[in-house]
Design a protein that fits this description.
- The chain is mostly helical.
- The chain has three helices and no strands.
- Keywords: 4Fe-4S, Cytoplasm, Disulfide bond, DNA-binding, Iron, Iron-sulfur, Metal-binding, Transcription, Transcription regulation.
- Acts as a transcriptional regulator. Probably redox-responsive. The apo- but not holo-form probably binds DNA.
- This is Transcriptional regulator WhiB.
C-alpha cells in the first residue's frame, strides 16, 4: 500500500513510497482536512495530509507552540 508501509520496509523503499504518496496528497482537495484529522488523533503511522510520521510530530509541536503563544488550545 502506498500510504502505509509494510513491516520490515527498508529506508530506500520507504523514501520512494512516501514520495509517491506525497505526490498524490499534493493534488488532493481535502489535504488540509486529512492532515488536521491525523494531527487531532494522533495517527502514528502512514502518510496523512502529505506528511509522514516524523513530519506530523514536528507539525503538531509547531501548532502547540503557536497556540500556546496565542493563548489558545491546539487542535
Amino acid at each position: 500500500m502506498l500510504f502505509f508501509g509494510p513491516d520490515g520496509e527498508r529506508q530506500p523503499e520507504r523514501d520512494v513510497r512516501e514520495r509517491k504518496a506525497k505526490a498524490i496528497c499534493g493534488g488532493c482537495p481535502v489535504r488540509n482536512e486529512c492532515l488536521d484529522y491525523a494531527l487531532s488523533r494522533p495517527e502514528k503511522y502512514g502518510t496523512w495530509g502529505g506528511l509522514n510520521e516524523d513530519e506530523r510530530a514536528s507539525e503538531r509541536r509547531r501548532r502547540m507552540r503557536r497556540a500556546a503563544s496565542a493563548g489558545i488550545s491546539a487542535a
